[in-house]
Amino acid sequence: MKNLELKSLRIVENIFILTIIILLIVNLAFYRIIINKFQAGVKANVADAVKVIDGDKLVKVIKDKSMNSTEYKKIQLEMIKWKNDKDVKYFYTMYRERDTVHFLIDSALVKPEPLGQKYNFEEEMRQAFDGKVTYTPHPVRDNLGTFVSAYAPIKNSHGEVIAIVGVDVDFGVFNYMKYKFIIDIIIIIFMIAVAVVILRKLEETSMKHKILFENAHDIILYTTENGQIIDGNKTAVMEYGYSYNELKTKNLKNLRTLDSSKDLGDIDSEGSVFETINIRKDGTTFPAEISTNSIIVNNERIIIRIIRNITERKKIEEKVVYLAKYDPLTNVYNRASLMSKLNIALEEAKKHKYIIAVILFDVDKFKNVNDTYGHCEGDMMLKTIANAVKKSIRNTDVFGRLGGDEFLIIQQFIKNKEDIICLMDRILYNIKSQPINLNNNEHYINISIGISIFPSDGHSIEELVNCADNAMYYTKKNGGNSYNFYEHSKKVLINSLYKSN
């Protein structure tokens, strides 16, 4: 590919420099305006705060020095009401004794500052006691946050300053603005530095680009707007099976299957990412993810296509989809799929008024197999059972594993009870016909089966599964290796068996 002209990069550099100057000016002006507005707001707040405090009552509080006096509580209540309507974190009053200043009334209901507690006598407080409205020129930081404090004098009915009011306003947002301003400037300076480096080292960058282009794991193709290939990297040559010169004679449509080449104008646009099926020289195919972008070279638009072979990703996606529906050990439906299928089957049965059977079974003495021979042998037993059952059921039946050694069958489109019995006989026979080898000894598998029928035994998933479970429990208590239908006459016996255990 031809090198880009240096002129465009110089323009970019100049734009960056102009941008940082403008942002500096705008940020400084904006920051100053906000600070001025904030300081004016603080002064307005403290001036407003003075109005809610009765100076004459405050004289009595100073004299009594009691936090339980009526005057103290009335003034504190007024302070609390005022503070709740303002953007103020702390609101308090202080009085002076010689060269020390003490807390008077605090607006905090929980753990207020004790009346009479000494406080640092700041210059701004001294000015307030002299009759001025003042505020700290710089934010004060403590363990509770960052604040700007403002002070104003409280006068009695004779115009004498008897105390001062203090208001603390949270300054945290302005700290954030200051840091954001600094970070913005750092980012812009960094971007200019990057642009300058790119400009000064264009030849070096071009060489690195060429190395990356040739050694990229993904296919990279440069094409015209109509798809004619101009250039391709080594991965493209290896993946498609064409020589470099052969590849340059191809159009992008020659590298896609007919189905995936339809309506490419709608999806193969700049900035798009889509999947398609690509075809090699020998006719084999592979799934690909294509991302598209473009550059202008000598006033000609060149399309850059990065094509990734996603065969392995597709296998993983298929596996994830499979595992969402199927049990990985036995390759039959898992619990979630079974419940979904059973729900659909019930709805259909209710709609069309036909019978379905819910068949639940587990392995007799399966725990002994796991404990004696190990879980690998137990897994082999479950696989053998699953294979035997799959041979026994019809295409319309649904079979899956609920978990552990418990399985469930949904038998649909049943004409009569004999259909269920025939299926049970086939399952028991096929399982019995496939003994497994445990420590060089043939071991015959026994299962206990319970059956419930819709609509006679229940109308919901929970009712039918519970009935089938009760019937299976009845089978197991009577020796196992058989099946039983749920019957209401057995319910009392089943319940008593549960209670006895």
Provide structural commentary.
This protein has three domains: 1-215, PAS domain (Beta-Lactamase); 216-314, PAS domain (Beta-Lactamase), CATH 3.30.450; 328-498, Alpha-Beta Plaits (2-Layer Sandwich). Helices cover 48% and strands 25% of the residues. It has helices spanning 6-50, 55-64, 70-84, 123-129, 172-200, 202-215, 234-240, 244-247, 264-267, 311-325, 335-352, 366-373, 375-392, 417-432, 461-477, 488-500; strands at 90-97, 100-106, 118-119, 134-135, 140-142, 145-155, 161-170, 219-223, 229-232, 273-279, 285-297, 300-309, 355-363, 398-403, 406-414, 436-438, 441-443, 447-454, 482-485. Strand 11 and strand 12 form a beta hairpin. The two termini are 82 Å apart.
Short key terms for the protein model shown above:
single chain; alpha+beta; Beta-Lactamase; Alpha-Beta Plaits; seven-stranded antiparallel sheet; 16 helices; 19 strands; 25% strand; disordered N terminus; disordered C terminus
In short:
This protein is an alpha+beta fold. The chain has helices spanning 6-50, 55-64, 70-84, 123-129, 172-200, 202-215, 234-240, 244-247, 264-267, 311-325, 335-352, 366-373, 375-392, 417-432, 461-477, 488-500, and strands at residues 90-97, 100-106, 118-119, 134-135, 140-142, 145-155, 161-170, 219-223, 229-232, 273-279, 285-297, 300-309, 355-363, 398-403, 406-414, 436-438, 441-443, 447-454, 482-485. The protein is built from 16 helices and 19 strands.
